[in-house]
């Protein structure tokens, strides 16, 4: 077991929050805050400079938001883990962060012990989620599964577009589809627009009818 401290970068667009988190973590034994940033672009610069073990990442930030910054960190510095700490616990935010590669997701109601556990878990290759987030993930996993992949799909649909149409036929909202497929809601909207254009659907009712006829549900 190493005696090296856990090296953490704090990222939040509010200076008071950054300073508070830094002070909080520095009171925790075995944790070293190597820097802080107020937006995702600056966070990437500091990750390149300091190579922390974990980034504690806010989501809603200027210049480059936390979801995009998380994706960049995971792509460019795969050895660096990301734990999201945000006020948002909606399906779209959770799905977007996890799809980007976040290894933990906490709300700002979390205390020092919970934050520290999530950081250590992420550095060790594990995941820890806020109880409310874990409940949403469990709910998403219990939703009806997407149809199995088919060798060929009608009208030039991609497998993901077919999955989205199947979810629409089940009455799922865009947010529910995003959570079920672990993608951002904006990505779902893009798939819907592309699918509607390919099948000639003008609304969700026509799309649902098409999905049922084609056995996509």
UniProtKB/TrEMBL annotation:
<keyword id="KW-0597">Phosphoprotein</keyword>
<keyword id="KW-0238">DNA-binding</keyword>
<keyword id="KW-0805">Transcription regulation</keyword>
<dbReference type="GO" id="GO:0003677">
    <property type="term" value="F:DNA binding"/>
</dbReference>
<dbReference type="Pfam" id="PF00072">
    <property type="entry name" value="Response_reg"/>
</dbReference>
<protein>
    <submittedName>
        <fullName>DNA-binding NarL/FixJ family response regulator</fullName>
    </submittedName>
</protein>
<dbReference type="InterPro" id="IPR011006">
    <property type="entry name" value="CheY-like_superfamily"/>
</dbReference>
<keyword id="KW-0804">Transcription</keyword>
<dbReference type="InterPro" id="IPR039420">
    <property type="entry name" value="WalR-like"/>
</dbReference>
<dbReference type="GO" id="GO:0000160">
    <property type="term" value="P:phosphorelay signal transduction system"/>
</dbReference>
<dbReference type="InterPro" id="IPR058245">
    <property type="entry name" value="NreC/VraR/RcsB-like_REC"/>
</dbReference>
<dbReference type="GO" id="GO:0006355">
    <property type="term" value="P:regulation of DNA-templated transcription"/>
</dbReference>
<dbReference type="InterPro" id="IPR001789">
    <property type="entry name" value="Sig_transdc_resp-reg_receiver"/>
</dbReference>
<dbReference type="InterPro" id="IPR000792">
    <property type="entry name" value="Tscrpt_reg_LuxR_C"/>
</dbReference>
<feature type="domain" description="HTH luxR-type">
    <location>
        <begin position="150"/>
        <end position="215"/>
    </location>
</feature>
<dbReference type="Pfam" id="PF00196">
    <property type="entry name" value="GerE"/>
</dbReference>
<feature type="modified residue" description="4-aspartylphosphate">
    <location>
        <position position="58"/>
    </location>
</feature>
<feature type="domain" description="Response regulatory">
    <location>
        <begin position="7"/>
        <end position="123"/>
    </location>
</feature>
<dbReference type="InterPro" id="IPR016032">
    <property type="entry name" value="Sig_transdc_resp-reg_C-effctor"/>
</dbReference>
């Amino acid at each position: 077991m190493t005696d090296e401290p856990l090296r953490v970068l704090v990222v939040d667009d509010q200076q008071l929050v950054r300073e508070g988190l830094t002070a909080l973590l520095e009171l925790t034994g075995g944790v070293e805050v190597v820097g802080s940033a107020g937006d995702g672009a600056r966070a990437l610069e500091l990750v390149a400079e300091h190579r922390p073990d974990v980034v504690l990442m806010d989501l809603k930030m200027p210049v480059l938001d936390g979801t995009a910054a998380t994706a960049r960190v995971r792509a460019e510095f795969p050895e660096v883990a990301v734990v999201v700490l945000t006020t948002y616990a909606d399906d779209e935010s959770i799905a977007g962060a996890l799809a980007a590669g976040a290894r933990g997701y906490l709300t700002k109601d979390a205390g020092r012990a919970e934050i520290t556990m999530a950081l250590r878990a992420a550095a060790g290759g594990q995941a820890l989620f806020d109880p409310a987030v874990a409940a949403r993930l469990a709910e998403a996993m219990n939703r009806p599964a997407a149809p199995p992949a088919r060798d060929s799909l009608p009208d030039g649909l991609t497998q993901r577009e077919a999955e989205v149409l199947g979810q629409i036929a089940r009455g799922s909202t865009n947010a529910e589809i995003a959570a079920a497929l672990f993608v951002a809601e904006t990505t779902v909207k893009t798939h819907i627009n592309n699918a509607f254009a390919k099948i000639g659907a003008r609304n969700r009712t026509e799309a649902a009818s098409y999905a049922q006829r084609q056995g996509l549900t």
